[in-house]
Design a protein that fits this description.
Layout lengths: L14 H15 L10 H29 L8 H11 L1 H29 L5 H21 L1 H15 L10 E6 L5 H8 L17 E7 L2 E7 L13 H12 L3 E7 L8 H11 L8 E6 L11 H17 L14 E3 L8 H22 L2 H6 L21 H15 L3 H7 L29 E2 L2 E2 L8 H21 L11 H26 L19 H10 L5 H10 L4 H10 L14 H7 L23 H14 L1 H5 L16 H4 L12
Parallel strand pairs: 1-3, 1-4, 4-5, 5-6
Antiparallel strand pairs: 2-3, 7-8
Helix pairs in contact: 1-2, 1-5, 2-4, 2-5, 3-4, 3-8, 4-5, 4-6, 9-10, 17-18
Amino acid sequence: MVQYNFKKITVVPNGKDFIDIILSRTQRQTPTVVHKGYAISRLRQFYMRKVKYTQQNFHEKLSTIIDEFPRLDDIHPFYGDLLHVLYNKDHYKLALGQINTARNLISKIAKDYVKLLKYGDSLYRCKSLKVAALGRMCTVIKRIGPSLAYLEQIRQHMARLPSIDPNTRTILICGYPNVGKSSFMNKITRADVDVQPYAFTTKSLFVGHTDYKYLRYQVIDTPGILDRPFEDRNIIEMCSITALAHLRAAVLFFLDISGSCGYSIAQQAALFHSIKSLFMNKPSIIVCNKTDLQPLDGISEEDMKLVMEMEAEAMKTVIGQGGEPANEEGALLTMSTLTEDGVIAVKNAACERLLNQRVELKMKSKKINDCLNRFHVAIPKARDQKERPPCIPQAVLEAKAKQAAEENRKTEKDLEDENGGAGVYSANLRKNYILANDQWKEDIMPEILDGHNVYDFIDPDILLRLEELEREEGLRQAEEEGDDFEMDGQDLSPEEQEALAEIRKKKSLLIQQHRMKKSTAESRPVVPRKFDTDRKFTTERMGRQLSALGLDPSLAINRARSKSRGRKRERSVDGREAGGGDAMDIDGNQPSKKLRLRSTSRSRSRSRPPSEVVPGEGLKDSAQKVKAIRLAKKSVKKRNKDARRGEADRVIPTLKPKHLFSGKRSIGKTQRR
């Protein structure tokens, strides 16, 4: 199905803007620096490139305009005639023809001047030919300026046209002005058409959509039509005539039987008979509107006769392609858009008759045979005369009976209405309590007794729980007594008690100093020994402090010295000499350098190789770690190449700075704009 979307047509610039766009693009996209010292072939190529590039840009823009505007002979006849009514087909084709002619002229100009540029003998001559070529192209565009402006006006108007699908299910509303067509459309669709108490409020086609039997229907509101010769009708009326002539739709002819529209029933009947030829092969319904002002039974006999004739004509026009008239049900309907009486009935009747006609046409087409060959309807046959009633399980029957009983029970809302309504009735929250005796539900339960919460003391097993807690507390106390290694002063001599008090005091001071350093900015890394010029941290000082406290410092000093680092090379050689018979024999003539290279010290610090697996990294072996490192380097390679600071760096630099890509500046001018 072809979709017509005129809103996507590109904007058509006027002549001056067209020239500015093309020439500025040529200046930006082609080289701008040339010197007379260049070879003549380079000069020719420089100016030929400018002429060709300008011609290509003109050709692309003009071709876009020609291709995007619809061809009246190729689109649906409804849109073709509608555009002809609105814009005059001759003027439309003439404007597009001028655009096409201008495109061919520009191509011919570029071809001629490129041929001349091939024989240019100097910079001045080549530049003059380039200026002449571009000037003639711009002159051609200036001459078609009125056509460009006309096409831009058409484009703007076409973008405002409603999107009408000529092939879908459509309901068409027509009749005299001010008979209630727009009001009916506002009632059955979500469209918002302006409704006023004067004629020709609707000046163009309006589209809405409604649903019937899970199908979407397109409803078109047409402007009012007057009963006059075809040649005297204006553009507004011709829009309605075009829609009636080309759209396969159900036609609703609105009839104002009250006469409040300003036209009598005889005038409206004359209009119906003048345009009834447009209703052929379309379901037609005569809709008598404004029955709230004048019922159909209250009109005169002459008017009733005219209405009956219109109904008969409506039935004659509903002739299928097989020549059989449709049934007479629903050919004449009454309604009132003010009271909405009969509005839905009119919509349903129109949709049903349109649907039946479309199904009938499809059944008479040749494609239906191909579809019917694929269907097979299987009808089961009875195998015997035995009756087999449905078998419903007993549980299902009981569930249905229980559900029926629950439907009859009174709800809290019913009880509230029976007992005074909201604000008077108080719901009983205790009636659903599950107790051993139902009489206990209404008992008054004390909450506070003697200043205590009653709920805190209600526990039948409180004595057993108390025994368990006491037993657990006794076990914990026994464990704590066994784990208590803190020295008490009862078993110590007076000297030992003084030493213990001094140690505890020193310990508390150290803790306080540590906390002060940690809370201030004095928390620094450990100072290396070579920077310890004051010799504060030595084994002698530690020995004096421990001796002052009454402790033997020899063990601590020996431990500190055993943990200190020695000279690696001397220790490695001595260790090898002290190895005795277990050590490997070494040639005495071997150079000491090789000996030092071979010697390995366990205390020497070495850097961990990158491939070594550290526990906790989640890698299986060194091969997997090497592969992971290689993939990580590969992943950041592109980011580093683009000078990104990380994965989240989304900065888009200025790819073409203005000062580097703007054109040449003339003499004495420093601003770029």
